From TrEMBL:
Family, as annotated: Belongs to the OPA3 family.
Keywords: Coiled coil, Membrane, Transmembrane, Transmembrane helix
TM region(s), chain numbering: 82-104
Stretches of the chain forming a coiled coil according to its record: 100-163
GO terms for biological process, alphabetical: regulation of lipid metabolic process
Signal peptide: none
Stated name of the protein: OPA3-like protein
Any one GO cellular component localisation term in the record: mitochondrion
Organism: Petrolisthes cinctipes
Length: 171
């Protein structure tokens, strides 16, 4: 169980390291492209900022006074940075979720194939058992016929013996 924690820590560190260059490239793209900045980068940042401030106000128990307070706007540079970080981590999370989903489906397929092989073995064994039962019944029938034939032959031999002894006495 001990190696699991360092591997999880290493995976988390890897995700963080990969997210940094991705978010910096998103920042560069947001600075250069107005469309990208306005449609993809700023809306998630503004929403995240709004949720964060509302939660902080709720936690600090200043909910009643929050109706009169407006949430301060995030400046554009901070919004671009926050949006780029959110998009970068979101992309990394999506990739990780896709890999996880792929791995789960692969494991399910592997398990399904294993169960299918086991079912084939069970079916084969059941077929062999039924064949053996049929062969046993057939041999049992032949044995009964052989016993009947033996009994009939023994009876005929006794009859022949008695008739031959009677013939010898009659001479």
């Amino acid at each position: 169980m001990a190696p699991v924690f360092p591997l999880a820590k290493l995976a988390f560190l890897f995700v963080k390291q990969v997210a940094r260059p991705l978010s910096s490239s998103i920042k560069r793209r947001a600075v250069s492209s107005v469309f990208f900045r306005e449609k993809f980068c700023l809306p998630p940042a503004k929403f995240y900022h709004w949720c964060e401030v509302r939660m902080k106000m709720y936690v600090m128990n200043s909910r009643r006074s929050s109706k009169t307070r407006t949430i301060p706007k995030l400046n554009e540079k901070a919004a671009i940075e926050l949006g780029a970080n959110l998009l970068g981590e979101g992309i990394i999370f999506s990739i990780a979720a896709a890999i996880l989903a792929f791995e789960v489906s692969r494991q399910k397929e592997k398990e399904r194939k294993k169960e299918e092989m086991e079912q084939n073995v069970i079916d084969t064994l059941q077929s062999q058992v039924s064949d053996l039962m049929f062969a046993t019944e057939e041999l049992d029938t032949k044995l009964r016929e052989a016993n009947k034939l033996l009994s009939t032959t023994q009876q005929e031999l006794r009859e022949i013996k008695t008739s031959s002894t009677a013939m010898r006495k009659g001479k």
